[in-house]
Design brief:
Four Helix Bundle (Hemerythrin (Met), subunit A), disordered C terminus, single chain, 2 strands, mainly alpha
Amino acid sequence: MLPRFVGRLGAADAVTIANAALGFVAVVVAFVDIHLAARLILLAAIADGLDGILARRYGGTDAGPYLDSLADVASFAVAPAVLAFVVVRGGLGIGFDRVTPEFLLVAAVSALFVAMAVTRLGLYTAYDTTGAYTEGVQTTLAATVIGASILAGVADPRLVLAITGAFCYLMVSRIPYPDLLARDAAIMGVVHALAILVPDFAGRTFPYALLTLGIAYMTLSPWFYWRDDEPQPAETGLHGNA
């Protein structure tokens, strides 16, 4: 007897499921090789974009949106939170032998990141999937910034803790973020892939570039990245009313 999913899931769904598996592997690897774990999260982000391309090209399935959100929980909620926990705990010399206030703080921020990422994913699936804008920083972007900072070698433990804490708010904020146009998404994808394949090339150029692009999009796009098919900021409340 064939498994239940045979004939019900498509190519896009297979990539989505692979995305979830990458997230789990990243969690396991994080305690052994933090840089490999960061690369796996970035690879999961590429898979997250690829499944959308496949769904548009070959058609999606009824299960697709649910699988996508579930996979994102693994790869862009739990996995980056674990990476942040490992980096901060190791950098501050917090051991596993006893529960200290510092240990509880790092664990609480990481847990809050997961909670807010799951909340954002649920809100996105319910309200934002049909528009060219979404409210709050995308979980994929948050995971990419954390992963790229690790590969770029700028993952100071206190900075990572602060960034992780900031994302806890930004992911559920009312700030509208526009979807990238195809040409810009392609450029981002190339840099993203190179950061995975050759992270140490030319003084970690590509992880730095990916981190720079991610931060630029996160800080500037709500106000300066206008799409021809959407109202401009003054019409959408981008100056504080969203």
